[in-house]
């Protein structure tokens, strides 16, 4: 038997997860500025098994436009360089001894607009997820009222609180979008 408080708590947790997933997606969207998280999706062949670069090398920033990758083992440099070059990120790494430099190519105006469209579409997906959670929570509360476990006053109160939490999460998504768009359009 679930209570209204449990329904709200579950919804809040799932909405927080949606925001976390959206933030994670945003880190993968390229801006003109270098970000070590950009290489998180790149897998490299490490003795027959595919591993994320961060597990076979130290990934850090050299400067605002350059990521440095320092392999932990000799001989991994060429494999890491090849993995980055073949990824769909459009990056062109260059080896300097043991260090691999990954410069961020400057983005054209058109590419920047495409990136902001991508950010907005991802934001819309996150908002849809949050709204679906709101709908589910409200349906659970209605079921409690139907089963005579909660009153209609409880339902109205719960729906208002659910809406407040939803609005807060939607506003957070909008803030993340504004910050990411500013970062993308920055030359």
TrEMBL record:
Record keyword Lyase present: no
Record Pfam families: RRF
Domain Ribosome recycling factor: 22-185
Subcellular location: Cytoplasm
InterPro entries on file: Ribosome_recyc_fac, Ribosome_recyc_fac_dom, RRF_sf
SUPFAM superfamilies: Ribosome recycling factor, RRF (SSF55194)
Main subcellular localisation: cytoplasm
Keyword line: Cytoplasm, Protein biosynthesis
The organism's place on the tree of life at top rank: Bacteria
Family: Belongs to the RRF family.
Biological function: Responsible for the release of ribosomes from messenger RNA at the termination of protein biosynthesis. May increase the efficiency of translation by recycling ribosomes from one round of translation to another.
Protein name: Ribosome-recycling factor
Species this chain originates from: Ramlibacter pallidus
Taxonomic lineage from the root: Bacteria, Pseudomonadati, Pseudomonadota, Betaproteobacteria, Burkholderiales
